[in-house]
Amino acid sequence: MPITSKYSDEQVEQILAEVAAILEKHQASPELSLMIAGNIATNVLNQNVAPSQRKAIADKFAQALVSSLEDKAH
C-alpha cells in the first residue's frame, strides 16, 4: 500500500527536477550523486532530529529506500 504524503506530487517533482538539474550541470556520476544524497540525509538528521531519534528515523528511511526499489522491480 502506498504511503500518503503531506507534500504534493507537484512540489516533490519540482524540487527533484531542480536537484537533478544541478547534478547534471556538474556532471555528477551516479556514485557522486548517491554520496551527495547520503550527505544531505545525514545533515538533515543531524540538524533537525533529536539525537535519541536519529537512528530510528535513519532505519525507516533506509527501509523506505529499499522498498521503493523492490516496488519498481515488479
UniProtKB/TrEMBL annotation:
Gene3D superfamilies: YejL-like (1.10.3390.10). It holds the Pfam family DUF1414. It comes from the Bacteria. Belongs to the UPF0352 family. This is UPF0352 protein QWJ08_09560. It comes from Vibrio agarivorans.
